[in-house]
TrEMBL record:
<feature type="region of interest" description="Disordered">
    <location>
        <begin position="1"/>
        <end position="22"/>
    </location>
</feature>
<dbReference type="InterPro" id="IPR013785">
    <property type="entry name" value="Aldolase_TIM"/>
</dbReference>
<dbReference type="GO" id="GO:0004139">
    <property type="term" value="F:deoxyribose-phosphate aldolase activity"/>
</dbReference>
<dbReference type="InterPro" id="IPR002915">
    <property type="entry name" value="DeoC/FbaB/LacD_aldolase"/>
</dbReference>
<dbReference type="Pfam" id="PF01791">
    <property type="entry name" value="DeoC"/>
</dbReference>
<dbReference type="InterPro" id="IPR011343">
    <property type="entry name" value="DeoC"/>
</dbReference>
<comment type="similarity">
    <text>Belongs to the DeoC/FbaB aldolase family. DeoC type 2 subfamily.</text>
</comment>
<keyword id="KW-0456">Lyase</keyword>
<protein>
    <recommendedName>
        <fullName>Deoxyribose-phosphate aldolase</fullName>
        <ecNumber>4.1.2.4</ecNumber>
    </recommendedName>
</protein>
<keyword id="KW-0704">Schiff base</keyword>
<comment type="pathway">
    <text>Carbohydrate degradation; 2-deoxy-D-ribose 1-phosphate degradation; D-glyceraldehyde 3-phosphate and acetaldehyde from 2-deoxy-alpha-D-ribose 1-phosphate: step 2/2.</text>
</comment>
<dbReference type="GO" id="GO:0016052">
    <property type="term" value="P:carbohydrate catabolic process"/>
</dbReference>
<dbReference type="GO" id="GO:0005737">
    <property type="term" value="C:cytoplasm"/>
</dbReference>
<dbReference type="GO" id="GO:0009264">
    <property type="term" value="P:deoxyribonucleotide catabolic process"/>
</dbReference>
Length: 323
């Protein structure tokens, strides 16, 4: 049973490209075709038994374990970080012969960076901070840039920014490019994840074009959603974004990561997302340097499923808190 995603050679950061309006104009997405393809995904690579358990464990190593609530406290973040360090009960891991399994990162608001860092000390698990006026992104630009800089200075290794949706809705691609490029510069060594808030972008064609603009501006990851929009990560949106990543890789040789986030709460859903990645981008992307789930409750369901696999008996959700 593999402990987590196998180690992969790291890739260079995406340096970006000049904005290419012609590429954007030539990019269109056929929604019915995308929906039809996504409907077929669950049946494409069914996994059962020990394989299913192995894939669930691999999923754990791809999670940005997240708390983004107005009532977050240092205590809640400490409990979350304990879960990130040891995502499952020791007896379950021992039964499967798994050692060293952790989540990929912990994702919090700026104010929770310090308690998260303290709780994760020595674990090697990075802290990601949401930023730029998350979730709406409507703070003044200077405030948004200062927020990034403050979070990097506080020790966040990854910054999850939100884009200005109006730039997409107005087709102002230069404004979006300039915004993301400025965020990238403010991040310095921290990796930049750009949240598109796809549920507010109007069309899959807009999602594809916004994905390309973010990558041209130097995004290390493109991420679907904040988890706060009425519609968050959906498979047609995911397909659109991973095909943009594939097109960008074909054109530049540069690998950009993908993070579906918001509403992914069951192992069954997560395995379909992994099928999407395997089919569209290949195994190289099934690694924490190129793929993350942004999720607050997915881990709890995975732990429950793993307990059922190990014991053969039903496991209730209450037995796996803070996952
Ligand atoms: O970035 C992560 C999301 O906010 C998590 O959303 P969720 O609470 O629906 O799992």
């Amino acid at each position: 049973m593999p402990p987590a995603a196998p180690p992969q050679p790291s890739h260079t950061r995406n340096p970006g490209l000049p904005l290419d309006p012609g590429w954007l104009r030539a990019t269109r997405v056929n929604r019915p075709a995308a929906e039809q393809y996504c409907a077929s995904l669950p049946g494409r690579r069914p996994v059962t038994g020990a394989h299913r358990a192995a894939w669930m464990l691999r999923t754990v190593g791809l999670i940005d374990l997240t708390t983004l609530a107005g009532d977050d406290t240092p205590g809640r973040v400490q409990r979350l970080c304990a879960k990130a360090r040891q995502p499952m009960r020791a007896d379950l891991l021992a039964a499967l012969g798994v050692v060293g399994l952790t989540t990929a990162a912990v994702c919090v608001y700026h104010e929770m960076i310090a308690p998260a860092l303290a709780a994760l000390r020595g674990s090697g698990i990075p802290v990601a901070a949401v930023s730029t006026g998350f979730p709406a992104g409507l703070s003044p630009m200077a405030t948004r840039l200062a927020e990034i800089e403050a979070s990097v200075a506080a020790g966040a290794a990854e910054i999850d920014i939100v884009i200005s949706r109006r730039h997409v809705l107005l087709g102002d691609w230069a404004a979006l490019y300039d915004e993301v490029a400025a965020f990238r510069a403010a991040c310095g060594p921290a990796h930049l994840k750009t949240i598109l808030a796809t549920g507010e972008l109007g069309s899959l064609t807009n999602v594809a074009r916004a994905s390309l603009v973010c990558m041209m501006a130097g995004a290390d990851f493109i991420k679907t959603s904040t988890g706060k929009e009425p519609v968050n990560a959906t498979l047609p949106v995911g397909l659109t974004m991973v095909r943009a990543i594939r097109a960008y890789h074909a054109a530049t040789g540069q690998r950009v990561g993908f993070k579906p986030a918001g509403g992914i709460s069951t192992a069954k859903e997560a395995l379909v997302w992994l099928t999407l990645i395997k089919e569209e981008l290949g195994d190289r992307w099934l690694s924490p340097d190129l793929f993350r789930f942004g999720a607050s409750s997915l881990l709890g369901d995975i732990e429950r499923q793993i307990e059922q696999h190990v014991t053969g008996a039903h496991s209730a959700a209450w037995r796996h808190p803070m996952g």
